[in-house]
Amino acid sequence: MKKYTAAIDQGTTSTRCMIFDHSGKVISLAQKEHRQIYPQPGWVEHDPLEIWERTREVCREAVDKAGAQPGEIAAVGITNQRETTLVWDRRTGKPFYNAIVWQDTRTKPICDALAAEGGQDRFRARAGLPLATYFSGPKLQWILDNVPGVRAAAERGDALFGNIDTWIIWWLTGGPEDGAHVTDVSNASRTLLMNLRTLDWDAEILSLLGIPRAMLPRIVPSSDPSTWGSTQRDGPFGEAIPVCGDLGDQQAALVGQTCYNAGEAKNTYGTGCFMLLNTGTEIVPSKSGLLTTLAYQFGSQPAVYALEGSIAITGALVQWLRDNLGLISQSAEIEDLARSVDDNGGIYFVPAFSGLFAPYWRSDARGAILGLTRFINKGHIARAALEATAYQTREVLDAMQKDSGVTLTALKVDGGMVYNELLMQFQADILGVPVVRPRVSETTALGAAYAAGLAVGFWGNLDDLRTNWQVAKTWQPAMPTRQRNQLYRNWKKAVKRTFNWVE
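and the corresponding structure tokens:
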């Protein structure tokens, strides 16, 4: 009897496996971190083999914790850190180079050269994205141009490209022994290489970037009844289970939050912060610095699109205070430290460590703390770090409402930071709308489980999933309008001070 679905959530700092029952309840969870590799300033890498080993470990652990018997898991879904780029040998599975993480800025010269003709929005009409270091295509070009032997291997058909979802699915379904080389529409839309209308790789963009099409994965629906293969009996699940769900992490959270109607939105607070607004089957171009992206595609149904506001550094700022400055010993301590003061003391922390993403797209920006006086202590710095997440979310929401014409009356939230009561209340205050956390806040993994479960009939339709969604807590705005506007004006002033730092 099929009792569960499994989701692998491969994130920027850790990998999780979660087992869910039919009601969307978490039955078990296993999680392990992996190393962050910083070869040079602005460069961020991961070891793909370490990520695969962590994936194997957490899958085995989650199954053991759940007490799941063979035949009880209906399907496996994958969700992943998007844009993180790797190339490996088809024959051996050995990576040619470390995975280049979405935060990495080494491709700025490539992006600048491409923008010299046609500007930063040169590909936006086709790919929905600006030319920016964020996306996979320029990272793949860098690997082809700078890692010895990769281009030759690609041209003879031995080198495979993928984001992390493709890497995990390839290994789950057999690896060098005929593993499935696929990616879904949501992940493909983050490469800068996919045409939004055709849902296929764009030949002209591939030519301009010098990328051989043969190394690219096949683009498939996010929830695919045909499946792409099954887990191996000697693999981490110990049995053959259909692998048939795949979503980029932010699109997975949209699915997990059951935002299936045009005009519904969610915000995920993780390493970065990502707000998505469902625009239905309509491709909505952005004039306000947002991304036009694929939300999901279920089987043979039409693809659903979204507007996205991507913020590079939110939870990562708390990790930075912990790991680089030693201001706290555990991330959870940030709230108590921030509560040790009544306000931010007049300081603003703009975490432009990897430049600024939406709505600015300024790779020349760098992080700064503005407004420092002798009065400031570590409590003020902690509070300003949390407030930075809320301010950046406000900027994205303003842009989203301008582009879409939709005025949000509430914001659904998820991710690790939504348990920070101080942050969530400040978020409601600075937005001026209620902030709503669902009963299951790990909606990224839940969305991947939903995609896989829908494909095999574990859930019958979207109404089954909507029934699972329940409110856990709502924060109501309580800040006076004048105070809200003054704080936000000061934030905007601080952001502008970070421009043009990298010449």
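(Above: one complete record from the training split.) The two ends are 62 Å apart (CA to CA).
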